[in-house]
Each structure stands twice: as structure tokens, then as C-alpha cells.
């Protein structure tokens, strides 16, 4: 049985690999927090150079909206991969997935509600 930290680290590794393979660039930093039956993944530095240029267009709100739509669609299309990452790491299924990206900071948040609170052992006990 894994510790909470091991589950969180496994989700970080899997989501980071997903971002690299599926979105074209991995995050500069990533943290996962398991809070009961909620999993929060915070990624920083996720925007590609092309995406950064898109939000700097002469109509920044249109570039921002387009970027958010494309990223949300890609995450939704990759949802089965993310669900497998969570199942492998935590042993529970994802019930719902929520996603947003900040074009100002390059930060991305993925929140997943799980069908159960994952079982894990306390740190230091094997």
C-alpha cells in the first residue's frame, strides 16, 4: 500500500508525462494534493511559446478564450489517460474532472473528484 505522498508523486509523474506527450510541453513545476476524495493538480509554466504569443494578440481576450477552449478540449479528449493515471496511482476511479488555465500566469489547475477516498498507509509504516 502506498503512502499519501507516494500517491501524489505518482499522479505528478503521470500528469507531467501526459502534458509532455499529449500537450507538447511539460510543466516547469507540478504539485498534487489529495484531499479526501478530491485530487488537485497544480501545474506551473505550461504555456508554449506559441500559446504565449496567441494571448498577446491585438485582441487578447479572443486569444485567451481560444487558448482556454483548445486546452479544455485537449484535456477532455485525454481524460481516459488521466483517469488511468489516477486509477494506477490511487486505486480509485475519477468521477468528474474540472480544468482551467491562466493565460496571465501560465498556471493550470486540474481538479478530480474520486469515487472513494484512496486507501493509503501512514508515512514510515510498511
Textual characterization of the structure:
This protein is an alpha+beta fold and 126 residues long. It has a single domain (4-114), classed as Threonyl-tRNA Synthetase, Chain A, domain 2, CATH 3.30.980. The protein is 44% helix and 24% strand. The protein is built from 4 helices and 4 strands, in the order H-E-E-H-H-H-E-E. Strands 1-2-4-3 form a 4-stranded antiparallel beta sheet, with helices on one face. A hairpin with a 2-residue loop joins strand 1 (29-35) and strand 2 (38-44). The radius of gyration is 16 Å and the shape is elongated. The termini are close together.
Characterize the biggest β-sheet: 4 strands, antiparallel
Task: Decide which structural class fits the backbone.
Answer: alpha+beta
| Relative strand content | 15-25%
Q: Strand-and-helix sequence, N→C?
A: HEEHHHEE
- Contiguous uncertain segments of 5+ residues: none
The CATH architecture would be 2-Layer Sandwich
Per-chain topology:
Blueprint (H helix, E strand, L loop, with lengths): L3 H20 L5 E7 L2 E7 L4 H6 L5 H18 L1 H12 L3 E8 L5 E8 L12
Antiparallel strand pairs: 1-2, 2-4, 3-4
Helix pairs in contact: 1-4
Short description:
The chain has 126 residues and is α+β, with helices and mostly antiparallel strands. Helix content is 44%, strand content 24%.
Q: What are the key terms here?
A:
single chain, alpha+beta, 4 helices
